[in-house]
Amino acid sequence: MSLLKRLGTTQDLAGQEQSNKTQQPGTQRSGTTGNLGGSQTQNTGQQGQQQSGETAERSGGSGELGALRRPSIGGTQQQTGSTQQKSDNFNELKSRIQNRLISELDPRMDLGNQEEVRRTVEETFASVLESENIVLTRVERMRLFEAISAEILGYGPIEPLLKDESVSEVMVNGPNQTYVERAGRLERTDVVFQDDDHVMRVIDRIVSPLGRRIDESSPMVDARLPDGSRINAVIPPISLVGPTLTIRKFAKDPLTSDDLVRFGTLTPEIVTFLKACVEARLNIIVSGGTGSGKTTMLNVLSSFIPDDERIVTIENAAELQLRQDHVVTLESRPPNIEGRGEVSIQDLVVNSLRMRPDRVVVGECRAGETLDMLQAMNTGHDGSLTTVHSNGPRDTLARLETMCLMAGYDLPIRAIREQIASAVDLILHQSRLKDGSRRVTYITEVQGMEGDVIVLQDVFTFEQTGQENGKIIGAIKPTGIRPKFVEQFESHSIYLPPNIFGTSYERLF
Ligand SMILES: Nc1ncnc2c1ncn2[C@@H]1O[C@H](COP(=O)(O)OP(=O)(O)OP(=O)(O)O)[C@@H](O)[C@H]1O
Ligand SMILES: [Mg+2]
After folding, report:
1. Which residues of the chain have pLDDT under 50?
2. Tens-place pLDDT, residues 409-444
3. Cα separation of 56 and 102, whole Å?
4. The last residue of a domain, from among 137, 153, 169
5. How many domains does the structure of the chain reveal?
6. Which residues on adjacent β-strands are paired with residue 232?
7. In which domain, by residue range, is 169 found?
8. 59 and 83 together in one domain
């Protein structure tokens, strides 16, 4: 990607202050759309040269520079006094220096060599500050440089959020609103973009190196950052608040069962129980609402798969991080521009059965692949794991039914229920509670059919005992019922102490 494409047309940036002041919102909007299309595909080298020339001319104009030149941001802040103006001044100075910098940098510079680009940017930055007679304190200078290099080398205003380890998710709702999730809670940040175009450039920078595109004709995209973070972008006209970007940051060290015990999501007894379930090759569905920790739990369960088994993982965007040696990771692919070349999760599930898997782990079942997955579970590929969006164990069954119908085979509902009842052994349901904590709220056995109804039996449930400073107090506890599949444990020589289920030895024997 050329430097100019990375930053948008410099002409836009230079002209923006003016247009912001003079144009009506309506006119700005139409200008934006035109530019979005343009910046997507054909920003040729020649165009770039022209634009950079133009910018050089604009920014070189002594009148404009003279008017904006000021000794230090601090001085201006004192004059204005208001925080809003402080950030306006910073942004103004930033875009001015940035424009000068772009006009002085070679637009054909190879942005792949990050170290060299950073050094060149640093040198040019210093010379621009000097030639413009701008005096900044060390802190201001660092801040300005970081903001500008984030525009050129990183992901613009959200770069600091992506680097912040306490942030687990970043949500950009158009140019003026950015939220993050910290410790399970949503917080609004003071990060703002200049305009829709600015957000678009960041989105484009993320998706175009991946060979993906986003424009009016395909306004939604799912992708992954090079560090593994999962991103989703939706742009106008589908999004009415401007281009939106949601980033689920990749945990370098994925949460382990010990972490989940520490957070109160699991107890050591339940970890022992779940380990036994995985080793005994039960088919397990992890269910829960969005962001409730399903993928994390799937990763933890997968970590219990013995080392000598061949695991095939299937996901839309590879999020699972298995530690075992023998893992084949497959990722689905959306159709290309001509609508061809799609490889769906369903294709991958069907294909995986020919790969001699000991375990099939599907990141999430969302549609027709559910039927293939259930059939696989029923035909010798037991010990499979997947996740489903739902509101509770019973709802998980309803979702499975609906998704099987989506396979389009016109099967009678009873046949589907029988498939579900015989394939699925256990449902582990998670919730994100009001205080932001993620808890396992149900561990439920699927016992079979009674008439037309699938019989469920809760083995563990979450009991809330109170609230303290907004924190929910409670724990997941056994219901006292010993699941029927315990016999399966025994055939795998796994013996659990019966008190795990809240049952005494007397009741067992
Ligand atoms: N038990 C937990 N305690 C605290 N944080 C957790 C827990 N489980 C997951 N998280 C964090 O919550 C976020 C969402 O987790 P995860 O991706 O597993 O959710 P999900 O249910 O798969 O979401 P989605 O529905 O979007 O696929 C991640 O940042 C993860 O680190
Ligand atoms: Mg997930």
Report:
1. 4, 9-80, 506-509
2. 888 999 999 999 999 999 999 999 988 899 999 999
3. 9
4. 153
5. 3
6. 222, 246
7. 156-250
8. yes
